């Protein structure tokens, strides 16, 4: 009798323990990236992607674009604070010079007047930039031979 009563009480009270309030969830914003040359969610790319959004760019309004990118993990820009026209060298994950592809709205950017053809990131005004996507790791299958270390894709405002 005691056993039956305990089993019945445990069954009744356990249903109340499992129940939870269904209104206590929070909807998160979706982040859409173009890491695979197609717009998709960041969680479904399967790649190491860092997105510098508009909010971060506005918080760092006194800096230039190369200084903001230089603060990201795995990115080193030699000469990030230099004057305009002195092209900074971009290194992703410790790779050699020239192994990082820089894109502006998906179009490869380089400077043929320099020996190493690196594009001067300081020439792009922060007011023009909507977001910056940094793809770390080998991206050569999608973006070509210049993307051995990764890709920095600068998306401008429309």
Separation of the first and last Cα atoms: 75 Å
The SS-based structural class is: alpha+beta
CATH class: Mainly Beta
Question: Overall pLDDT, averaged?
Answer: 78
Low-confidence stretches: none
Oligomer: single chain
Count of separate structural domains? 1
Main sheet summary: 5 strands, mixed
State the strand order across the main sheet: 3-8-9-6-7
CATH architecture: Beta Complex
Strand runs, count: 9
Return the string of H and E elements: HEEEHHEEEEEHE
- Gross morphology: elongated
Stated plainly, the CATH topology is called Ferric Hydroxamate Uptake Protein, Chain A, domain 1
Quick overview:
By secondary structure, the protein is α+β, with helices and mostly antiparallel strands. The chain has helices at 2-18, 54-59, 65-70, 140-143, and strands at 32-33, 40-41, 48-52, 75-78, 89-92, 100-104, 107-108, 129-136, 150-156.
Topology:
Elements (H helix, E strand, L loop, with lengths): L1 H17 L13 E2 L6 E2 L6 E5 L1 H6 L5 H6 L4 E4 L10 E4 L7 E5 L2 E2 L20 E8 L3 H4 L6 E7 L2
Parallel strand pairs: 6-9
Antiparallel strand pairs: 1-2, 3-8, 4-5, 6-7, 8-9
Give the tags.
158 residues, alpha+beta, Ferric Hydroxamate Uptake Protein, Chain A, domain 1, five-stranded mixed beta sheet, two-stranded antiparallel sheet, 4 helices, 9 strands, 21% helix, elongated
Can you give a write-up of this model?
The protein is an alpha+beta fold and 158 residues long. The chain has a single domain (25-156), classed as Ferric Hydroxamate Uptake Protein, Chain A, domain 1 (Beta Complex). It has four helices and nine strands; from the N terminus they run H-E-E-E-H-H-E-E-E-E-E-H-E. The protein has helices at 2-18, 54-59, 65-70, 140-143, and strands spanning 32-33, 40-41, 48-52, 75-78, 89-92, 100-104, 107-108, 129-136, 150-156. The strands form three sheets. The chain has a five-stranded mixed beta sheet with strand order 3-8-9-6-7. Strands 1-2 form a two-stranded antiparallel sheet. Strand 6 and strand 7 form a beta hairpin. The protein is elongated, with a radius of gyration of 24 Å. The relative contact order is 0.17. The mean pLDDT is 78.
């Amino acid at each position: 009798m005691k056993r039956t009563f305990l089993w019945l009480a445990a069954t009744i009270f356990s249903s109340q323990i499992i129940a939870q309030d269904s209104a206590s969830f929070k909807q998160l914003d979706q982040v859409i990236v173009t890491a695979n040359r197609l717009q998709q969610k960041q969680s479904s790319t399967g790649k190491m992607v860092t997105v510098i959004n508009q909010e971060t760019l506005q918080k760092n309004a006194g800096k230039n674009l190369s200084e903001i990118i230089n603060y990201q993990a795995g990115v080193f820009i030699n000469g990030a604070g230099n004057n305009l026209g002195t092209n900074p060298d971009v290194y992703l994950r410790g790779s050699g010079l020239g192994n990082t592809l820089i894109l502006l709205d998906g179009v490869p950017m380089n400077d043929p007047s320099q020996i190493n053809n690196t594009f001067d990131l300081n020439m792009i005004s922060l007011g023009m930039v909507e977001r910056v996507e940094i793809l770390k790791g080998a991206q050569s299958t999608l973006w070509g031979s210049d993307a051995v270390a990764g890709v920095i894709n600068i998306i401008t405002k429309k």
